[in-house]
Amino acid sequence: MGADYRNSNPKPALSTVPGPPPAEQARRRDELTHHKRLALGLLIVAAVVYIACQVIAHTAELGAGASWWVGLIRTGAEAGMVGGLADWFAVTALFRHPLGLPIPHTAIVKTNKDRIGRSLAGFVGENFLNAELIIDRLQKMNVPTDIGRWLATPGNAELCSRKVGEAIVWAVNNTDEKEVTAIIKSAVVDKAAEPAWGPPAGRLLEQLIAEGHTEPVIEQFAAWLHRQALRNPGFFDRIVDDKLPGWAPGFMHTIAADKLYREVIGFTEQIATDPTHEFRRHLARIIAEFADDLQHNDRTIAKVEQLKQEVLASRAVTDLPAVMWQSIAGNLNTQASDSTSLLRTKITAWLVTFGNALLDDTARRRWLDTLITKGARFITENYGDNLTSLISDTIAGWDTDETVDKIELMVGKDLQYIRMNGTIVGSLAGVAIYLLSSLAVLVAGA
């Protein structure tokens, strides 16, 4: 029922006292009014009986026996009135000043609301947020075994996977895109822009050269160059056409182009097949010099920095954080919502495996039990005061009159039974006292 009350009043203000929904409040208020009337009715009955007995005793001529009975009833009614009035005062004094009179030590809840909140917080802290008490309770519960048994039960791992998926979807959909893109920009784009690109790129290239990783690249480049020469004989025809004079005969064009083609093909084939070819060594020297220039040549470093600024200012890079988040968010939403997705199936499989491991592996159960115990101790020892202060601070923030009304609404019905019992028990006590007094008189007279 308490959970229903919390759900019925979402996001209460600090000064608003939580409680049942309006319909439930109305029902409880009617019950409280009804029981107040019952208690008052009993008190009135006692008063009427007392007055009637007084009238009878002073106006009617009664025999000894009748007089005794009237005295008995009158004493019981009188004691009932005293008991009922005393308990009415006590119950009323809890919430307000009886008859509106500012009698000391009345309106206890109203005048001591904050102190009651602190006392309640202290009581909870001492008796419920005690580390040893919680740990002892957790150890008796055998939580790891219960978790393992629950996860191993068919359907429960899938349920957990679905709940995790729903949590992921909720988190993604409730995340501020601007904040996330700002974080991505700070972590990726801004970090990339901070250092000069030239020196670290030069050091990386130098390391690749030292480890021999550039040789396969040169080899692949030589093979690619040879393939391009083989595939483009027309390219050499165009070169010859551009270089030879227009009056040269056509066969000279053909001979020159063919010779140039064969020479280039032979040259590129040598480069592609000879690892020690001079062209390869020259290319390796160029790469090594470039690696050194990236680190030490101010002009090269400046050119790389200019290139960096152009890259970072490009539309592709400025849009990168938003594009990354849209891709991540879309993929997470899709994966988390689909029970057959890789993410959901992996979560389900892991939970089942973990549950079975808890049932079969004593060491795993001991590990989880230790983890839970340490976690409980850490939370209670480091945040117990925060949790208890939440109680006292929340109660201190409540409106005083509303607090009094809500508390009376919650427990007032039961307190009215105290008033009824005060009248009834008082009457019985009065009757008992009268009987004992009569008995004492009889004994003394004998």
UniProtKB/TrEMBL annotation:
Q: Mark out the compositionally biased spans (Polar residues).
A: 1-10
Membrane-crossing segments per the record: 38-57, 423-444
Region (Disordered) location = 1-29
Matching entries from Pfam families are given as:
DUF445
Q: Can you name a GO cellular component term? A: plasma membrane
Q: Which InterPro entries does the UniProt entry name for this protein?
A: DUF445
**Which keywords label this protein?**
Membrane, Transmembrane, Transmembrane helix
PANTHER family found in the cross-reference section:
INNER MEMBRANE PROTEIN, INNER MEMBRANE PROTEIN-RELATED
Protein name in the entry: DUF445 family protein
